[in-house]
Amino acid sequence: MARVSIWGIRSKKSAIVGRLYELGVFHPIEKREEIGRGEGTGGPMLPGSPVSLLERLRAQRGRVLGMIEALSWDGWKQMTDAFVENVRYNLSGDLEPMMDEIERSLERIQSRLNRIRENGKNARGDFLELRRANLILNHAHAFLEQERSARGERVIWRLSRQGQHAVLTKINGDLDLLPSGHEKPWFRYHAFELEDGSSFLVTSASPEVEPGLEAAIRDMQGTRWKLPFHFEKASLPAASSQIRRLLHDQPARIRESRAELQVLSSQWGANLGAVYVLLNERLEQLLMEVSAGENEDFFILEGWIPERGLERTRTVLEEDFGEAVLLRSRPPRADVDGPVPTALRNRSLLRPFELFLKLLRIPDYHAYDPTPLIGLFFPFFAGCMVGDIGYGILVLWLGWHLKQKRSEVLHDVGVILIFVAFWSAAWGVMFGEFFGDVGHRLLHMEPLWVDRAHAVLPVMVFSVITGGVHVLLGLLIGMIQGIRNRHRHLWMERAGSLLFILSLVSALALLRAQLPSAFFSVPVVLLIFALIFLIWGGGVGGIIESLGAVGNIISYVRIAAIGLSSAILAMVASTFVDIFGVSILGLFMAFAIHLLNFVLAIGGSGLHSARLHYVEFMGKFYENGTLAYKPFAKKRRFE
User: What is the C-alpha separation between 633 and 24, in angstroms, rounded?
Assistant: First the structure.
């Protein structure tokens, strides 16, 4: 990474910034996101000024995004660079005329969108109103039909349960006090309650009772229920059938409104998405322009460029702008520059394994990037735990399926699973496993190395030896990194732990070989130097750290343990076929056990292999950084 200063003539600032944006390698130092929000403007925003354009760009971008959401358009993953460039070609190259063109188009689309949304809103409102009216009339239908021949008016009142009781008590009491006769007034009613808790009272009364009834209901805060505005003049029985017919047509009206919105979305959604991308690009460029330090004649941009892209950037700027631009660069200086942005540089084959570092803070610029070693050891360990050709084929299918996804994370997971699949098949050949012992039963497969289901000790020893190599490699990287960065505590402690483990390994090897005691001077010397480095580098904590490293190596036995459990569970699946025969039950139980074992194998091997890297391996050297490399560049993924 090189620290760069780019000087340019002020009149060429927009063009130079645009060229840097296309090159996509410049990491600016300034926090340009805060520019233009009122900080440092030093006065009112004049029309046409950069700050005024920033506010207008932000407002227009927000409006476009709001319209995209209103259209329910979600085609970001299908957006291509070619489509965006085609939309760019049809727009003006100058910023203000471009925004004017977009504004006129937005007004036309907004007019259609408002009309469609208003129609849809009215259709949904009418549907809800008619459905409620229909529900109320259905509850009152039997009573209304019964009272069809009555002389009095039939009315539906909205009235609480307590109010109904008070009204009914008063009206019936008044009627009881009247003398009996041939033309005695009458009063009939029906009460019901809806699911939402609202209560209604349907009444039919002779003309003499109606004034008192209405007054009593009004005293109890009751109100007359009215038909929807379409049927205000219709009678209740007549309105009921008409409402049912109209209600039947409302879903089609709502679907028509939705279909019209979908048509508008298909016509303009992608174009609005491309316009949003273009506005966002112009906003980023304008923010960069505003953030540049300048005087009457020149401007300056400070930032970082990776060394591999430095010469190309210099050449392109000189070819395009000649003496109007000047690029100066130098190596980073920690005492002056502060944190240096870290850019991970891995080949395309190993780049998916950078996914493991996304769960951590990015490594420091001066630290080692463990991605290549993760790409080597993670599938090796995980494949050893799975250790089955049949399961390897299934993992390969799953990985290939995920690799086709547009999501970057799923694509990376798919590539990692493909690596795991090949190692699973390779270890399956070594262990002679194809869906457990099915390969041995049907194809007479024999292990190329050992049958891990029966020869447990060799696999455990191999796991510990592999863990020792892995941990020692981590300590070696930590020691080299400490020496390079002049961290005495780090490199001496790692060197001490490294010598301590080597002394133990050499002592065990000499005991195993039953060599004379004179040879034991080698591990003793290693141990003495180890203690010197550990105490000098980390004191008592250094000795504890070295013992922890030994425990880390022993923890690699989990590779053998998880693999053994997977092999035994696969053999259990075959046992069900032995017990129940080649029957539906036997095959079903075998399939269920294999499915369970496959899920556990994928989950267990992935989690434990990742833990071995995060804790036992990367804990020996990994240093967190503070700043990730984020170039001033176009987005190549639209999500």
Answer: 4
What gap in Å lies between CA 279 and CA 301, rounded to an integer? 22
CA–CA gap between residue 305 and residue 28 (Å, rounded): 9
Total domains, the chain: 3
**What dihedral angle (degrees, nearest 10) is formed by the CA atoms of 629, 634, 636, 639?**
90
Residues 297, 317: Cα–Cα separation, whole Å: 18
Same domain, 432 and 540: yes
The proportion of the chain whose per-residue pLDDT surpasses 90, expressed as a percent, equals: 52
From the list 404, 616, 401, the residue with the least C-alpha distance to 501 is 616
- Convert 599-626 to b/e letters by CB count within 10 Å (16 or more is b): eebbebbbebbbebbeebbbbbbbbebe
Which residues have CB under 8 Å from 17's CB, separation 6+? 285, 288, 289, 292, 301
Q: Are residues 465 and 603 in the same domain?
A: yes
Mean pLDDT for 446-452 is 93
Question: Does residue 356 share a domain with residue 265?
Answer: no
Structure tokens at 93: 């190259």
265, 212: one domain? no
Instruction: Convert the pLDDT of each residue in 89-129 to its tens digit.
Output: 888 888 888 999 999 999 999 999 999 988 888 888 888 88
Answer whether 0.70 is exceeded by the pTM. Answer: yes
Instruction: State residue 362 phi and psi, 5-degree precision.
Output: -60, 145
- The one-character DSSP state at 341 is P
Distance CA 215, CA 174 (A): 13
Q: What is the mean pLDDT of residues 197-202?
A: 91
Q: Do the domain assignments include residue 476?
A: yes
* Tokens found for residue 123: 């259709």
Mean pLDDT of the chain: 88
End-of-domain residue from the set 281, 315, 337: 337
Q: Which residues pair with 354 in a beta bridge?
A: none
The type of residue at 259 is A
Q: Is the residue at 303 inside a domain?
A: yes
CATH number, domain of 232, equals 3.30.70.2750
DSSP notation for 358-389: GGSPPBPTTS---HHHHHHHHHHHHHHHH--H
Q: Is residue 166 part of a domain?
A: yes
pLDDT of residue 12: 92
91 is a domain residue: yes
The token pair at 520 is 């034991």
In terms of Cα–Cα distance, which of 595, 598, 605, 618 is closest to 560?
605
**Which H or E run contains 205?**
strand 199-205
- The encoded tokens of residue 522 equal 């080698």
Do 238 and 178 fall within a single domain? yes
Domain containing 43: what range? 2-102+259-337
Where helices occur in 432-554 by DSSP H, the ranges are 438-443, 456-484, 488-513, 521-538, 540-554
Q: Do 410 and 553 reside in the same domain of the chain?
A: yes
β-bridge partners, 203: 155, 189
Tell me: do 139 and 159 sit in the same domain. yes
Q: Which of 306, 337, 368 is the last residue of a domain?
A: 337
In 3-state terms, what secondary structure has residue 607? helix
CA distance 28 to 24: 11
What CA–CA distances, in Å, run from 608 to 73, 316, 418? 41, 48, 18
Do 77 and 131 share a domain, yes or no? no
Round to the nearest angstrom and report the end-to-end CA distance of the chain: 29
Alpha-carbon gap, residue 248 to 232, rounded angstroms:
19
